[in-house]
Amino acid sequence: MSHMQIEQLRGRLDELNSQLLELLSERAEIGQQIGEWKRNAGLPLHDPVREKEMLDRLAAQNSGPLDEATVRRLFGDIFKATLQVQIEAPAKRKLLVSRASHREDTVVQIGDTAIGGGEPVLVAGPCSVESREQVREVAAALKRAGVPVIRGGAFKPRTSPYDFQGLGFEGLKLLKEAADEFGLLTISEIVTPAHLEEAAQYVDIIQIGARNMQNFELLKAAGDMRKPVLLKRGLAATMDEFLHAAEYIVSRGNSQVMLIERGIRTYEKWTRNTLDISAVPLLKRESHLPVLVDVSHSTGRKDIMAPCAKAALAAGADGIMVETHPNPAAALSDADQQLDLGEFAEFVRDVQSSGLYRAIKS
Ligand SMILES: O=C(O)C(=O)C[C@]1(C(=O)O)C=C[C@@H](O)C=C1
């Protein structure tokens, strides 16, 4: 046989390999569907009787050149592989928030502001809305710095019940009033499902806080809204838990979800929490949702906020959240970590100087 003939035969084998692979994949997919049905019906996945029937039929059909034992062994392996796919299917279920189900970056577009998939944005504001003057002063500073979104807590889940709990809806109204005056978007944390509808009049982005990341009723209610949601990573949440929490919202039809890393609890005491920078590229790789980083709650210290913000942007973050207050020493919450307005302007300049962020010019 000539070399050319061998090449032709090998070419034909390559074609048959591709066809076999296609057929095996189709077979495995059908097996997956049967597996799902069995699981729901509470039936065992392994069915030796059915396997024996199939093997006996194939043995009877076989006309060589493979001998019967080989046919039985090969198909036995195929059934084993199908069973394996059936067993692993739930763990490998593609989440709606995963890149595997949606390749392109999700872009949350609110008015002229786009979050995700392009220019990073800054979100800034006081930890808590305290007064009309306070929030108005911050809004003016944000406008000057080209920051499009103002944050401000009105419903504050505080560690101690004796600490300032926020101004509630009055706080949301003040936030909205200041934002409207300076053409900014608003973001604020909501903690009660029943408050979502009313809060939606005042906030452009609903924040679900770290302590509520696995408040499943709140996640479901936010999923029933058609408003952007910023979901904070829980204090001790794994990536898997974080993405599943986001899935609760997206699976109810609200695809406008953004994730925010805010530091996790570790043994380290020099920072308030430990900023998990690796969360940024991991989440960007595994999910199509925009990823932000809160440099205030993660570090809890002003002196490293700008470098951490730059690190987050370099790692691929779509935005940075930072707290600022006209008079941090007198703030009713998080007094130590809020930048004053001068420090905030400096922070923006510093982050901008990295070339990783451009302020929006109005
Ligand atoms: O027919 C089924 O019940 C299947 O689950 C499919 C299948 C197969 O690959 O053909 C897989 C595993 C069972 O042990 C038997 C058969």
UniProtKB/TrEMBL annotation:
The keyword Heme belongs to this UniProt entry's keyword annotation: no
Domain annotation Chorismate mutase: ranges: 1-90
Pfam families reported for this sequence: CM_2 (PF01817), DAHP_synth_1 (PF00793)
Keywords: Coiled coil, Transferase
Domain of life: Bacteria
SUPFAM superfamilies, A to Z: Aldolase, Chorismate mutase II
Record-given protein name: Bifunctional 3-deoxy-7-phosphoheptulonate synthase/chorismate mutase
Organism: Paenibacillus hodogayensis
